[in-house]
Specification:
Structural class: alpha/beta
Helix content: 40-55%
Radius of gyration: 18 Å
Strand content: 5-15%
Shape: globular
Largest sheet: 8 strands, mixed
Number of helices: 13
Oligomer: single chain
Number of strands: 8
Distance between the termini: 8 Å
């Protein structure tokens, strides 16, 4: 542990998975309770939307607001999709809620030296975009929104001259990115159990229609299963070599991508808490090793 910064020198990689990301936060909240602070965190989609609470040091927040607003049409739902083009209402979910209703701790986020990086996909090129967010500005919340903007239920997010969507389409498990950034030891939290093999999406005809103006984005989604399975192999090799520690759910997580079931959310989070507790000795040992 670095005595000057209070960090471990390790990176933390959080994949997406919509509400499966509450498993991730269960693990992360246990890490926060044990005063474990990675030097950098990279989050994809839900890993970004929920993972920002690690930098703001707010355990329990991701679960709390999702349960509180599970049936609130201002937060999410088909009416929001039909009227705004976003199932998760952009203004309410990413600005009103964190600024007024379940307040995001901007001062702690700003003071925390941990790097926070989100992954988006450039819809025009189908390539990954990595954005570090040191300050909790409105633009930063929009970058997080872009990372979590799932095709079919989200509009593209325009930032810095780019049109952006879900980061998982281009880089679902950015361990290699973190290693390229100089973090040679990383904790990787997955939201699928060991042995999972991603299959091609059956929704490609609909996705190609919806993304007809962004063919490169559609192509990225068409080959996502190949990319994802290759990344799982890379993670497995890194784990065998001692370069990363993998935390994953013990069995498939059963929750809908667009869930409004607060009880199911709690169950997913509780699985993460239990797995975090079970693996805590391993996590502490790994993060303290030099």
């Amino acid at each position: 542990m670095n005595a000057e910064t209070g960090t471990s020198g390790c990176g933390l990689v959080l994949e997406g998975g919509a509400f499966r990301g509450l498993f991730t936060m269960g693990v992360c909240d246990m890490m926060m309770q044990h005063d474990l602070w990675p030097e950098a965190l990279v989050g994809v989609s839900a890993g970004a939307a929920f993972g920002c609470n690690y930098k703001s040091r707010q355990p329990g927040r991701a679960l709390r607001y999702n349960k509180r607003f599970a049936h609130d049409g201002r937060y999410s739902g088909w009416r929001s999709l039909l009227t705004t083009g976003n199932y998760f209402n952009a203004e309410f979910a990413y600005h009103t809620m964190p600024r007024q209703l379940d307040v995001f701790d901007t001062a702690t986020y700003e003071a925390n030296p941990m790097r926070f990086i989100v992954v988006c996909t450039n819809a025009a090129t189908g390539e990954a975009v990595y954005k570090e967010l040191p300050h909790p500005t409105d633009d930063a919340f929009d970058w997080i929104r872009a990372s979590a903007s799932m095709p079919l239920v989200s509009r593209v997010v325009e930032l810095e001259g780019m049109k952006l969507l879900d980061g998982g389409a281009a880089d679902s498990i950015p361990l290699q990115y973190m290693e390229q950034q100089g973090y040679r030891r990383n904790v990787v939290i997955l939201t699928q159990p060991r042995g999972f093999v991603k299959q091609p999406t059956p929704f490609m005809p609909l996705l190609r229609l919806a993304l007809r103006h962004y063919p490169q984005m559609a192509d990225a989604l068409a080959r996502r299963h190949v990319m994802y399975n290759q990344q799982l192999s890379y993670v497995s090799e890194a784990e065998q070599q001692g370069r990363c520690l993998v935390i994953s759910p013990p069995e498939p997580i059963k929750i809908a991508h667009l869930s409004h079931d607060a009880d199911a959310m709690q169950q997913v989070y509780d699985i993460g808490v239990a797995e975090g507790k079970r693996r805590m000795a391993d996590i502490i040992r790994f993060m303290k090793e030099q």
